[in-house]
């Protein structure tokens, strides 16, 4: 076959079977003629060890020279590692972001993540991501789409960053599931918004004020013994709220809280003497397995945030969250010289870096100790001038 030109292609006639004529000047460029007489320019190439063909366009709609130029572009893309034919098939069968999200929920989130994380992810998908991006094909979504979505949430930087983090995982799985080419995650290189880290913890004066307030409210009947115990246990153990709120008597041993499941999996939490005494003061009911009993006969105290708001308001600690009680435990530990590796195990952190966020607090303890040493030495040595 010679070079494909308009005159040559016009002269080719259909046969009972489909036939391809190849250009002798540009390898992998040809014309496919169907028995119906329809003529379509094609490009043939090899990708991933397989021979593939991609339709370029119909003769008559485009010229032979236009098709030749397009074939060169296709071959150039292949040389850079692309697979145009496979990409087209992927584009045609690509689900929408909403369809991907629903598979992400059933095939990943519900199988591998904790219930609270499942709820967070599902809410982010259905309330934030779907309304903005849900109708776009997964194959077609771009970095600019994600960046524009991220920008719209700039007034809530923590939420904006969490949504992008979720999408990053989701689009990694989209590649694994064959919905996008590998290494094309559209969230890559997106710069996260800075987040103001909340490190509120109670100093000794505030701790004393909180203790007095809770004791008075217990005496006045403003909070129950179980609510009182819940907040004290948070401070005495450094546990997460859910770990105390949903604590069962079956998990309580003489020396530890043996949690079969938590945010970071199975946990064994040391139970100090003060915490054991507090637990011993609580009534155990045969019909209720939970330690912190709520309003329902067989359940736990469902909303500890409500009594906490009353307590912190009366104590003048309006900016203190329940999670800050855990921060307080960690700060006291660091300022008293507890080794970070040991504290990591006590708090149940997955990574040491999380524990080391409190490391700067040890500077206060070191400074105080250095001052005590210098004071003793100066008393012994006498006046310095």
Largest sheet at a glance?
Answer: 4 strands, antiparallel
Element-by-element helix/strand order? HEEEEHHHHHHHHHEEHHHHHH
Please give the radius of gyration in angstroms. 33 Å
Count of runs of 4 or more consecutive helical residues: 16
The tally of strands reads: 6
CATH class of the largest domain: Mainly Alpha
**Beta-strand proportion:** 5-15%
Q: For the terminal residues, how far apart are their CA atoms?
A: 106 Å
In short:
With 385 residues, the protein is α+β, with helices and mostly antiparallel strands. Helix content is 50%, strand content 9%.
Would you mind describing this structure in some detail?
This is Integrase. Keywords: DNA integration, DNA recombination, DNA-binding. Residues 188-371 form the Tyr recombinase domain. The chain is of the alpha+beta class and 385 residues long. It folds into 3 domains: 6-91, Double Stranded RNA Binding Domain (2-Layer Sandwich), CATH 3.30.160.390; 97-176, DNA polymerase, domain 1 (Orthogonal Bundle); 204-321, Orthogonal Bundle (hpI Integrase, Chain A). The protein is 50% helix and 9% strand. The protein has helices at 6-11, 64-79, 84-93, 97-112, 115-133, 143-152, 157-176, 204-219, 225-237, 241-245, 273-280, 305-314, 323-335, 340-347, 352-355, 362-381, and strands at residues 19-22, 29-33, 39-47, 50-58, 256-259, 267-270. A 4-stranded antiparallel sheet has the order 1-2-3-4. Strands 5-6 form a two-stranded antiparallel sheet. 26% of the residues are buried.
């Amino acid at each position: 076959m010679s070079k494909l030109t308009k005159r040559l292609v016009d002269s080719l006639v259909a046969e009972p079977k489909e036939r391809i004529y190849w250009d002798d000047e540009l390898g992998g460029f040809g014309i496919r003629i169907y028995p119906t007489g329809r003529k379509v320019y094609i490009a043939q190439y090899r990708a991933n060890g397989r021979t593939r063909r991609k339709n370029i366009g119909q003769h008559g709609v485009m010229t032979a020279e236009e098709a030749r130029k397009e074939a060169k572009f296709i071959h150039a893309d292949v040389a850079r590692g692309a697979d145009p034919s496979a990409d087209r098939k992927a584009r045609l069968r690509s689900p929408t972001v909403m369809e991907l999200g629903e598979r992400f929920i059933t095939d990943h989130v519900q199988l591998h993540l904790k219930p609270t994380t499942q709820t967070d992810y599902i809410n982010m998908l259905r309330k934030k991501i779907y309304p903005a991006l849900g109708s776009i094909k997964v194959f077609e979504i771009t970095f600019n789409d994600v960046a524009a979505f991220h920008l719209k949430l700039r007034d809530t930087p923590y939420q904006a960053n969490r949504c992008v983090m979720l999408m990053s995982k989701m689009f990694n799985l989209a590649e694994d599931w064959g919905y996008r080419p590998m290494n094309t995650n559209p969230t890559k290189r997106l710069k996260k918004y800075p987040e103001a880290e909340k490190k509120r913890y109670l100093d000794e004066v505030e701790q004393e004020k909180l203790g007095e307030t809770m004791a008075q409210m217990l005496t006045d009947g403003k909070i129950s013994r179980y609510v009182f115990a819940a907040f004290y246990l948070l401070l005495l153990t450094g546990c997460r709220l859910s770990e105390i709120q949903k604590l069962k008597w079956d998990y309580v041993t003489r020396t530890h809280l043996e949690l079969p499941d938590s945010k970071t999996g199975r946990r064994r939490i040391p139970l100090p003497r003060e915490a054991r005494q507090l637990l011993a003061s609580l009534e155990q009911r045969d019909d209720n397995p939970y330690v912190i009993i709520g309003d329902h006969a067989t359940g736990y105290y469902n909303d500890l945030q409500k009594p906490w708001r009353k307590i912190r308001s009366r104590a003048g600690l309006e900016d203190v969250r329940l999670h800050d009680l855990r921060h307080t435990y960690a700060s006291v530990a660091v300022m008293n010289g507890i080794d970070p590796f040991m504290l990591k195990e006590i708090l149940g952190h997955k990574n040491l870096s999380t524990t080391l966020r409190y490391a700067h607090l040890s500077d206060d303890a070191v400074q105080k100790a250095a001052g005590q040493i210098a004071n003793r030495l100066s008393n012994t040595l006498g006046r310095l001038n």
